[in-house]
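#structure-requests
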Amino acid sequence: MARTPLRFCFDYLSPYAYLAWTRMPALAARHGRAVEPVPVLLAGLLNALGSVGPAEIPPKRVYVFKHTFRIAHEFGVPLTPPPSHPFNPLLALRVTAAVEDWEARGRLVSALYASAWGGGKGAETPEAVAAAIQAAGLDAPALLAAAQTPEVKDRVRRNTEEVLAAGGFGVPTILADGEVFFGVDSLGHLEWFLRGEDPLSQVDLERWRNLPVTASRR
């Protein structure tokens, strides 16, 4: 029986999602899995949950760059800030959602991440997005046009709603056989899970779920 794909839910806004993406194809291949890149809107997740992004907290914004720069050094991949941050990722997310074939979509994800975080011209303007589409060997005019259609816009919205329904709350979120893994630092835990070596038991999980709350800031 074919193994279910790993759903990699991401937004180009996140350097953590970029770093996780650099590891995902090889990780999935080690376990005989395909990767489905799923573009979601981080702002939509945050708004739904009443949360804020790391870049919206000034001290954390600086720390995130230092943290991700060190992880990039560890991974042996480039990390250069985009022209602005936060930036509007909607066009990049929509052109990605317009690509039906997962392998081609993965090439586009890599090209857009390289443009956003690998020293390129970013992933916000139509010109930068078009250049990344061409670098991925895809049809830039066709995908830019598709990104403006209600169908593709709705696809990104539905992706975002689906990751929320699955228990996601940020990016990157990897959905594996009904389990949620969040953040680049969860990739090792994902591998344990895929090998059948997850140390977390259902008893442990239920104990935490049923733990009483005796203090609240609100």
